[in-house]
Amino acid sequence: ILPEMMYRQFGDEEALPCQYESMKLFVEAEIRRMGKKNLWIGPSLGDWLAMGKGIAWQAMHNNPVSNAFIVHDLKVISETAERLGKREDAARYRRQLAATTDAYIKKFVSKKGIVAKDYQSAYIMALKFVLPEGELRERVKKNFVANIRKNGLQTGFFATEHLLPLLVEAGEQKLAENTAEGLQHDDGQHRQGQIL
What we know:
With 196 residues, the protein is mainly α.
């Protein structure tokens, strides 16, 4: 992810060819771990430091978060391989990306657009990294907004970064503003479940 970010943010064209082999080794390790299920299922920290969730809960419920990162890794490596003219690698990683995206949707996203039994961080990571434009994405956005309205902010370290932009994408600018404003009391204490 970092070499691709350096390329995207700073135009550093040396980062991609210099780091391609290490990027590839990392993704290959993920692919081996996923196996035929095309998902990495098992304890993981995923979106750690989620408010109101203990470390044991997070370790057992973060597969939708950690697998969203794997989808993103596959997208990055397939685009990088293409950019570097490594067509065979690009084709292989695109196939794996399609298989992992499909497996993710089948495992974690219901036809009604509920992600991972209404887990807030999973909504965010699925919208950010996994779900393509279409009807299912729109249903997920509606459920995501309903979850925020009902529960307030319950995200952890990774999902929080994407929360406000996704609310804006869902046409919920006011909710995004209220969420941002509602993160702290005057005494600096975090609150949750108090977003209008």
